[in-house]
Amino acid sequence: MQQITARRVSVPMSALGSRANRKLRGSVSGVSAGAAIVVVLIALTPTGLASGTHGVWEKGPYKGTTWYPYTAVYVGGCGSAKFLAKPHWNASSGLGTFSLNGTDRICGNKTVGGQVINNYADVNAQFRVAIPLHVKTSGAHLITANWTFTRSGTFLISAATACPKPTSTSTYWQCSMFDQLQVFGYANIQDLTNGSYVTTPSSWPGIYYDLYQTNGTSCYGVGCSGWYQYSVNYGGWPVSGNTSFAWVFNASAQQSMNASHQYILNVVWYGDMNTGINGYASGTVIGAFNMATLGNGWKLNYIHIS
Amino acid sequence: MGAAGPLASVVMKAPYRKTVDNPTYSIATGGCGNAGLLKSPFWYPATGTAGFAEAAHAKSCKIAGGVNSDNNGYTTFQLAVPLKGVTTGGHFVLANWTMTVSGTESVVTTGACPYPVYAGHYVSSSCYAYALVSIGGYAYLHDMTNGSSVYPNNYWPGMFNYTQEQNSTYCYSGNCYSSNSSNGANGGFSGGTTFTWNFSATGYQSMNASHHYVVVVNFYGSVVANVDESPYGYPTAKASAVLNMGLAGDSWVLNSITIS
Predict the structure, then answer these.
(1) CA angle A191–A193–A197, rounded 5-degree value
(2) Long-range contacts formed by A293-296: CB under 8 A, 24+ apart
(3) N or C: which end of chain B has fewer CB within 10 A?
């Protein structure tokens, strides 16, 4: 326990919450409620850490950070894809944002060469952030990047149940609506000096949501009908909410860190809103994912190197 | 029943009423650069004119860790032009058009592609620059009544130009290996081109006056500008591609459709 009181611990306020912060501030020189938090940190410390090594907290502003946006839109027929907010990273606050919107409507159900014109809008955004890590000692380290993800998703599919024949001689045709959201992120630590990487076993579950309806018809008999609809979150987190998680990197053994090397934490966030409607007599699809306003975003709470 | 054919040629010219058009586009931007539509895909049935214009640019970000600056545009327009005056029997259908277009692309890099210090475990580096401008098109004659299609006897090869440069190094077991490659050359295409798609709707593909026919035309154009670097990149690198078939008088014009 002597090691605990010897450590210089700068606690990120956003990571611990106000109640924990108050407790820690009142006991930083002693062993009280704050020690429980520090004990957790000690438990996470890998064996073989150089003697005398102190944990290092990094929190905003993340000086020296570089970031790059990536965007793509795919539009056909009467679809519209928009960025209500393009991907952006604020190095001061550690907040990453973007907002995606796709809308589609039936606009005449025209055909080109017998094929119904597809109405679709696919809009995706990502940003890559490279955050310098300040590794002050050589040896094994445990690096934790803690985030809070606040977002909201809106999905609407609405169509007439009629799925008309595209041509008078059609024997099979299909109408469909889809409203799909995919969000994921990943991270690694890159040693810029020797080109090696440290990956993390902490996999963020992401969001994989699909709202889908189809009317398929085969008129080989008298029953020219068929209708199917599902709404499913394939995994990960709900499309709306506020959740925290952490990537943990164990830079030990042959991946032990060197204080003379330059390291960065690479983080990539990706979101895609894919919407479309085809074939129905009428209808509308709306998909919106907000990770930019009303306090939403990917917030880097802190990076801890122990 | 319609009249028996073949009869005298029917020549259709603008305006092409009741033509259905279907434009699409995709634009992707990333890293250091941009891409976009300079002119959204359009179709004017009154004159039989269609077109679009797009551009993409990328450059080295010069940032440790490496950045892929991938900037691309892909645009299409699709037309279904109804045929008039079709008689029952075998026919030849000619779709004649003129395209006035310009496309340019270039890749310019300087210096070598540095790689990290080899310290006993695997090390790699890569520098890649690529630019492409292309345009292509195809067509078919479609029977809307029975769903069958007749494909042309000839094809239009399209136009494209690309440049690629790549340098990479990897090190392991005490040795480092480097490779360089370069393909294509900076350049492009420009000017006017006239072409005719020739369909033989004969034999079992003979036409029926009671059916509804369309000539379906598809054109697609691409611009690609990529500068991908890991972990350091070229000292300087730029890639650029521009395709114009919609501005400053450039366009695609359907001159006529002849049924004989």
Answers:
(1) 20
(2) A293/A84, A293/A85, A293/A99, A294/A152, A295/A150, A296/A97, A296/A150, A296/A151, A296/A152
(3) N
What φ, ψ does residue A268 adopt, rounded to 5°?
-125, 130
Closest to B50 in 3D by CA, of B81, B28, B73: B81
pLDDT at residue A196, rounded to an integer: 84
Structure token digits, residue A261: 């090397």
Name the pairing type of β-strands B159-172 and B175-184. Answer: antiparallel
Which chain A residue lies closest to B22 (C-alpha atoms)?
Answer: A77
A169 touches chain B (CB under 8 A): yes
CA torsion through residues A246, A125, B58, A62, sign: negative
| pLDDT score at A170 | 66
For residue B67, the one-letter residue type is V
Which residue in chain B is spatially nearest to A261 when comparing CA positions? B117
CA torsion, points A183, A188, A192, A195, in degrees to nearest 10?
Answer: -110
Interface of B to A at Cβ within 8 Å reads: 20, 22-32, 61, 63-65, 67, 69-70, 78-80, 115-119, 121-125, 140, 142, 144-147, 149, 214, 216, 231
Give dist(CA B120, CA B239) in Å, integer. Answer: 35
Give the whole-angstrom CA distance, residue B73 versus residue B55: 7
What per-residue confidence (pLDDT) applies to B7?
57
**Is the separation of the CB atoms in A52 and A138 below 8 Å?**
no
Residue B1 has pLDDT above 50, yes or no: no
Q: Where is pLDDT greater, at A258 or A36?
A: A258
Q: What are the tokens at B167?
A: 């340098």
- Condensed to tens digits (0 to 9), the pLDDT of residues A85-108 reads 999 999 999 999 999 999 999 887
Phi, then psi, of A16 in degrees rounded to 5: -100, -15
pLDDT for position B46: 97
A219 contacts chain B (CB < 8 A): no
For residue B241, what are the β-bridge partners?
B56, B105
- In this predicted complex, what is the ipTM? 0.84
Chain B CB contacts of A167 under 8 Å are 144-145, 147
For chain B, strand residue ranges (E) read 10-12, 20-30, 33-44, 49-59, 68-82, 91-110, 123-143, 149-150, 159-172, 175-184, 187-201, 213-230, 236-245, 251-259
Q: What are phi and psi of A14, to 5 degrees?
A: -70, -25
Residue type, A299: K
Residues composing chain B: 260
pLDDT exceeds 70 at position A166: no
A155 in Cβ contact with A287 (< 8 Å): yes
Torsion region of A168: left, alpha or beta (phi above 0 gives left; psi -120 to 50 gives alpha)? alpha
Strand partners, B259: B10, B93
What distance in Å separates the CA atoms of residue B134 and residue B122, rounded to the nearest whole number?
A: 38
pLDDT at B5: 47
Residue of B nearest to A76 (CA): B24
Tokens of B259: 């049924």
